[in-house]
């Protein structure tokens, strides 16, 4: 008997196909909504300056505000930064690997700045180079007076199937909610290895005369994480610190003195846009608040940078910026539109996997959509499903003093898969060249709870539909 011609066999095929469709719908129908979770809206409150999270380390001229970031293009160097207050002290870093007793020294540089009536401490930056991949290193700073010891782990050697886990934090500030966000991230069992920070650090500019003491307190607050794992910095609007009314006309002055990045390694001309490779990811950082129009340095750099990405070597292409290109909240509505018009066609052309942004103090995740067909005369202004496009994720929900963005546009746009006005952080866990797992964690939940999640299918190596909204066609 020919089973393929049997009516019974044919009916079984139909039943199996139907069950698979039901199963697929069950797996994918968990998005496309405004969350029903309601966080009580209340004023955010700054932690008092005498809180333990702002404590000044004991000892004469003890280093404080210690932080690290990647120091080269590929992850074999680390920029170590710290501040001394009593006197300049040493800019040397002593470091050694876990498996070696040989201790080495790297020499850094010292900078200071003045802002209105504030004079900074002595800010040290030291690049430690020629490190081994996937190795734990210990390091000491403050070698001439009160030394302090920390450690970090270098990333694995770059390769297409190298697993790696990134944390995502944005718009943090220094409130009690900020502390909850950072604690929640630190205790997440999935253990981020590097933070991709999408801008707005201290919010010092929200205080009278842009009180730079709040830059110092913020640096001490986050030291417990950023002294041990790199945070990859993106400049936000609260880093501009442009205040001509008090004579401060140099944008980004405190930020650029305090937070160095390896921008020259990717042939960038400014520290506000640059790229790094880490494990199996190629990360491009853009500046929403630097010129990006055609013929500007940022535009020309990105135009030359995207063709350099070798998806055979680094299959995951991630873009960081501060102002979101897609946003269905009434806060900062359409502020990213001009950058979207210029850069979105490139994101689609080069198949960017995901774009992370902040600025809006809430959470939102889009489907894979694009609006590259639109011009000012054709009227094609509705985003459409596009499997070559990135997912856009807004994660400006760190917990700063300005509070939550709770006013959403209605009805919810079809491209918006999930949104919620809560504080939290996210985890992007790369498994191999084809799959990555993403999860967002609201502060009010247990550490392992995923309030939103999806499996990412890589745009270059596994470009299937990874939509999480069954109604999106």
Automatic annotation (TrEMBL):
It comes from the Eukaryota. Gene3D superfamilies: 3.60.21.10, Purple acid phosphatase-like, N-terminal. Residues 389-448 form the Purple acid phosphatase C-terminal domain. Its cofactor is Fe cation; Zn(2+). It is an enzyme of class 3 (hydrolase). Keywords: Glycoprotein, Hydrolase, Iron, Metal-binding, Signal, Zinc. GO terms for molecular function: acid phosphatase activity; transition metal ion binding. Coiled coil: none annotated. It catalyses: a phosphate monoester + H2O = an alcohol + phosphate. Residues 165-363 form the Calcineurin-like phosphoesterase domain. Residues 1-31 form the signal peptide. Its EC number is 3.1.3.2. Pfam families: Metallophos (PF00149), Metallophos_C (PF14008), Pur_ac_phosph_N (PF16656). Residues 63-154 form the Purple acid phosphatase N-terminal domain. Belongs to the metallophosphoesterase superfamily. Purple acid phosphatase family. This is Purple acid phosphatase. It comes from Senna tora. The lineage of its organism: Eukaryota, Viridiplantae, Streptophyta, Embryophyta, Tracheophyta.
């Amino acid at each position: 008997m020919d089973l393929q011609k049997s009516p019974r066999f044919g009916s079984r095929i139909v039943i199996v196909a139907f069950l698979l469709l039901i199963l697929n719908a069950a797996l994918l129908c968990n998005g496309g909504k405004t969350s029903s979770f309601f966080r009580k809206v209340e004023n955010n409150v700054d932690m008092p300056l005498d809180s333990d999270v702002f404590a000044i380390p004991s000892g004469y001229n003890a280093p404080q505000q210690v932080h690290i970031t990647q120091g080269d293009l590929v992850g074999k160097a680390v920029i170590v930064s710290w501040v001394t207050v009593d006197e300049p002290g040493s800019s040397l870093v002593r470091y050694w690997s876990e498996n070696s007793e040989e201790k080495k020294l790297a020499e850094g540089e010292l900078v200071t700045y003045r802002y209105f009536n504030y004079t900074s401490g002595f800010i040290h930056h030291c690049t430690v180079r020629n490190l081994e991949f996937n190795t734990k290193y210990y390091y000491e700073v403050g070698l001439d007076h009160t030394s302090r010891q920390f450690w970090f782990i270098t990333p694995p050697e770059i390769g297409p199937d190298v697993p790696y886990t990134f944390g995502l934090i944005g718009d943090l500030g220094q409130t009690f909610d900020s502390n909850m966000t950072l604690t929640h991230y630190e205790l997440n069992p999935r253990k981020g290895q590097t933070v991709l920070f999408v801008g707005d650090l201290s919010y010092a500019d929200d205080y009278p005369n842009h009180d730079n003491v709040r830059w110092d307190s913020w640096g001490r607050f986050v030291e417990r994480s950023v002294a041990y794992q790199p945070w990859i910095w993106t400049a936000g609007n609260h880093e501009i610190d442009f205040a001509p009314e008090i004579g401060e006309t140099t944008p980004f002055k405190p930020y650029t003195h305090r937070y160095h990045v390896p921008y020259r390694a990717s042939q960038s001309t400014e520290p506000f846009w640059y790229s790094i490779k880490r494990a199996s990811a190629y990360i491009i950082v853009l500046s929403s608040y630097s010129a990006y129009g055609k013929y500007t340095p940022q535009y020309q750099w990105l135009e030359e940078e995207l063709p350099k990405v070798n998806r055979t070597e680094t299959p995951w292409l991630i873009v960081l910026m501060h102002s979101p290109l897609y946003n269905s909240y009434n806060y900062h509505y359409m502020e990213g539109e001009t950058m979207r018009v210029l850069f979105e066609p490139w994101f689609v052309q080069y198949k960017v996997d995901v774009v992370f942004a902040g600025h809006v103090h809430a959470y939102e995740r889009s489907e894979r959509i694009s609006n590259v067909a639109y011009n000012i005369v054709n009227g094609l202004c509705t985003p459409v499903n596009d499997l070559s496009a990135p997912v856009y994720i807004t994660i400006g929900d760190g917990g700063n003093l300005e509070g939550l963005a709770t006013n959403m546009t209605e009805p919810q746009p079809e491209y918006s898969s999930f949104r919620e006005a809560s504080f939290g952080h996210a985890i992007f866990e790369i498994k191999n060249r084809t799959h990555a797992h993403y999860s967002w964690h609201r502060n009010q939940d247990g550490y392992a709870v995923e309030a939103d999640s999806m499996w990412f299918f890589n745009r270059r190596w596994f470009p299937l539909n990874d939509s999480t909204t069954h109604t999106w066609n």
